[in-house]
Amino acid sequence: MQSPIEFYFDFSSPFGYLGAQQIEAIAGKHNREVIWKPIVLGFIFKTTQSKPIIEIPLKGEYTKHDLERSARELGIEYTMPTPFPINSITAARAVLWSNSNATSGVSEQATALIHALFKAYYVQGKDISQAEEVINVAHSVGIDRDTLTNALQDDKVKALLKNAIEEALDKNVFGSPFMIVDSEPFWGSDRLNQLDRWLDVGGW
Amino acid sequence: MQSPIEFYFDFSSPFGYLGAQQIEAIAGKHNREVIWKPIVLGFIFKTTQSKPIIEIPLKGEYTKHDLERSARELGIEYTMPTPFPINSITAARAVLWSNSNATSGVSEQATALIHALFKAYYVQGKDISQAEEVINVAHSVGIDRDTLTNALQDDKVKALLKNAIEEALDKNVFGSPFMIVDSEPFWGSDRLNQLDRWLDVGGW
Fold it and tell me: How far apart are CA A191 and CA A71, in angstroms?
């Protein structure tokens, strides 16, 4: 097995969602694992003095159109959610907690939870900024409600997200999705094809 | 001939340069003309509260790397210029003036000037924010120095750029490159492949 692809994403990022639907096929093709890295861009936007693209005049309207056009082209189910953007802290903590329970490597449960949370928000229109929704979604992939409810209040779990965001900033991650493989950074779902070609030929 | 592809760009935008190297092949494939639309993003950034990506912490460094990687992949000569970004008002005015001299449709001289100005800045490292350099480059494509020197001081030529920027804003253009074809907007050199597929199948 080659070194993995780190896939940084924010649940509140539609491009992160589009990327998450594609990254496993690319990774599999190149015999790589996907290391899922949930982050919360709000904290990182303080460093980059950014805000969600959807809130920027002109860019916001274009981006809504672009997302729908790109999702249709890729055959990915997608509905612009409301509310948007959302606070994705609870969803990210749930995933990091789930992943921390894995005995080794990539946690299948955490991966299932990621896909279920994305689907809940971008397909089913559920507001996953709410702990109750996150717990419902987690339950649907076999996670005990009470155990997760307690974990979400645990300072150790809160620290997991704080550390994850610090690690992301240390690696100069500033967007979603953001992929790092063999130390090479790729920002945006529109760089997935380039990442694929990069792994095909070993870089250029 | 089908309706043309409007290609909005700022000479100070490296992604505009990369796009300009590719758009004619895509247009030709689909029997479309390219209508070159030089703009100056500085004025538009006031509306979108944006600034050059290169000046944004983390994003700036990544973007420099991304531009070099993308140029290498595409086989396009590119050197990150200094100074950067630049005031591209004079270069844009020269192109708009040259184009206004065309007897009909797309001006071959204006197209030659666009490519020569891009090459001067991104390949030869000449500072095309300076009127003297713009005039030198224009001379290299057959434009009389004195005629252009006078034109650049002409209020009618200044108005051409003002109108071009207003037209761009009216069409919700906010970046470079920005393409519009059959009323469909595409932002970024990384949407050229999507534009190509869009024209292949007539949209989706």
Answer: 15
